[in-house]
UniProtKB/TrEMBL annotation, chain A:
GO terms for cellular component: plasma membrane. It comes from the Bacteria. Its cofactor is heme b. Keywords: Cell membrane, Electron transport, Heme, Iron, Membrane, Metal-binding, Transmembrane, Transmembrane helix, Transport. It holds the Pfam family Ni_hydr_CYTB. Residues 8-175 form the Cytochrome b561 bacterial/Ni-hydrogenase domain. This is Cytochrome b561. The chain crosses the membrane at residues 14-34, 46-65, 85-108, 143-165. GO terms for molecular function: electron transfer activity; heme binding; metal ion binding. Signal peptide: none annotated. PANTHER family: BLL0291 PROTEIN, CYTOCHROME B561.
């Protein structure tokens, strides 16, 4: 559904940036905890599961909101192929937001592990205890995570292209919006403060 | 598109720099850049080499094992140290595994190595307490780097079939704790049954009580059966699966019992090194009784497909600062993931049963 307003629904914008921070943190936590057998491992693992489930909960809220409120139309001068790529990449981003936490949960279930979130909360298994299935999902979890990070980099580069090079209002539709300024095509969409910072 | 102006060029540069910065940070987090980290896979690979190569489908350490089931009857006294529901008065079903150290699933039982008991206790709310206990109160090394060094130094040379004495000598010189452990193993009684050994938590853990007080605790399962030792001079004369067959026969006649003793650290006790035993009297709580009622070969028992990762703990028990804990978690996890992909293979005990059935 195309939205008449030039901006995403404000609640969607908040969810987008909250989830962007959580997902980036998760990807970094994930690859770090896999790489080390040092003391950081326990701390990172204790963060990884509750944040993963939090992302799942947030995307369950976000997708219906996105479907109900729609997205602003892309600029008319964008090539049809580019529009199709934009659509496809967003479908994949949403798919990864669902798939990664569900596969993580399913993988632990298949491995016979408790899915402990802390504070005495343990989620029930969603798949049977089956080591062949565990091995498969464990590999898929990594593969999707790496593909997801690559997709996020493309998404970020494309968003910055819209904001800094084309200056066509697309980036602004997910940040501060257009309500205080003139029509989207004229908006000075050069906000660059949204890029994630590196962990130290 | 018009010719690129200066602003467009700097915009492209900014976009490129942003993506590159994220990529670099990610590569650092993943350990692809910067100082080399020891991963779980490094631990597992060192264990595989020590066992003379990969034994597909088996645990990379403690490959030879036997499943058991029983129950744990908590008397509630452990609640003085921890809010863990496992320690509330009541009885929980238990599954576990007896094993011997080493990566060879068909090795003989006559070896002066760890005799081990793994346990999984689960409360109805889904919380689990998994343990991997050894019959020694201490471990030969304190951290993961030393563990890998130890595995490499004790890897048999393919030519001689024995570890290189020069490498071993250098290891013992650099690691007095390994030498101390060897001295302990040489003197200590090697139990002649899985049923009469005391099994120790190895590491210290943090126990938090209902009032929020946290204490360091090690624990041990003390058997009701009196300890008797194997003749260490004639270990090579022991039939291949003697200890496992003894436990199967013993359990068929009746259950074996252990008492869970929680040992609270005294001020000054070392809580972050599994190489150091706690000396002298300690406040000790008998928290309940473990009863092992049945054994099963890994082929039909339920222990085979579990990772007895001792860092899987209920609320009320947490990790200490002992660096060996993360290393154990990662090593076990890597071994579990590798064997999961390889598929299960027959156990020594299962092999004995199959032979018996043919006769």
């Amino acid at each position: 559904m195309t939205r008449l307003s030039p901006d995403f629904n404000p609640a969607l914008r908040v969810l987008h940036w909250l989830m962007a921070a959580l997902v980036l943190a998760m990807l970094f936590i994930g690859v770090f905890m896999v790489s080390t057998s040092g003391p950081a491992y326990g701390t990172l693992l204790a963060l990884h599961r509750p944040i993963g489930i939090a992302i799942l909960v947030l995307v369950v809220l976000r997708l219906p909101l996105r479907l109900a409120t729609g997205a602003p139309a892309l600029p008319e001068d964008l090539a049809p192929l580019q529009k199709r790529i934009a659509w496809g990449s967003h479908v994949l981003l949403y798919a990864a937001l669902f798939a990664l936490p569900l596969i993580g949960w399913g993988m632990l279930s298949a491995g016979g592990y408790p899915v402990r979130l802390g504070d005495g909360i343990v989620l029930p298994p969603i798949l049977p205890h089956d080591l062949a299935l565990y091995a498969l999902l464990r590999a898929v979890h990594t593969a999707i995570a790496l593909a997801f990070f690559a997709l996020i980099l493309l998404h970020l580069a494309a968003a910055l292209m819209h904001g800094l090079v084309r200056r066509d209002g697309v980036l602004r539709s997910m940040t501060i919006g257009h309500h205080r300024s003139s029509p989207p095509s004229a908006a000075d969409d050069d906000k660059s403060g949204e890029t994630a910072t590196l962990p130290t | 598109m018009p010719m690129f102006d200066r602003r467009t060029i700097s915009a492209f540069a900014l976009i490129g720099a942003t993506v590159l910065a994220l990529l670099t940070g990610f590569a650092w987090a993943a350990g692809w850049l910067g100082p080399r980290r020891i991963s779980g896979g490094d631990i597992t690979t060192a264990l595989e080499a020590n066992s003379g190569g990969v034994k597909p489908g088996y645990r990379r350490a403690h490959a030879k094992g036997l499943c058991f089931t029983g129950d744990f009857a908590a008397n509630g006294r452990g609640s003085a140290l921890s809010t863990a529901r496992t320690l509330h008065a009541g009885t929980l079903p238990v599954l576990g595994r007896f094993s011997l150290a080493g990566g060879n699933p068909l090795a003989g039982d006559g070896r002066n190595v760890f005799h081990s008991m793994a346990l999984l206790l689960k409360t109805p709310d889904g919380q689990e307490w998994r343990m991997a206990l050894d019959h020694t109160p201490i471990f030969p090394v304190a951290d993961v780097a030393s563990f890998i060094t130890l595995q490499r130094a004790t890897t048999p040379d393919p030519k001689t079939g024995k570890p290189d004495p020069a490498v071993l000598k250098a290891l013992l010189a650099a690691h007095p704790e390994v030498k101390a452990f060897q001295g302990y193993m040489a003197k200590a009684v090697l139990p002649n049954s899985f049923a009469n050994a005391t099994y120790y938590s190895i590491n210290a853990f943090r126990f938090t009580d209902a009032g929020g007080t946290t204490r360091f605790v090690r624990w041990q399962f003390v058997p009701e059966a009196p300890l008797a030792g194997l003749d260490k001079q004639h270990l090579d004369q022991l039939p291949r699966d003697a200890l496992f067959q003894e436990m199967i026969a013993r359990t068929a006649k009746g259950p074996s019992r252990w008492h869970l003793l929680l040992v609270e650290a005294n001020p000054g006790d070392v809580t972050d090194k599994a190489t150091v035993a706690w000396q002298g009297p300690h406040r000790t709580i008998d928290a309940g009784t473990l009863t092992i009622r049945a054994t099963q070969p890994e082929e039909t028992g339920s222990c085979r497909d579990f990772n007895f990762d001792p860092t899987i703990l209920p609320e009320g028990i947490a990790l200490s600062d002992d660096p060996l804990l993360a290393a154990r978690a990662k090593g076990y996890s890597s071994s579990f993931t590798r064997r999961a992909a390889e598929g299960p293979h027959p156990s020594a005990v299962g092999e004995d049963l199959a032979k018996g059935a043919q006769q």
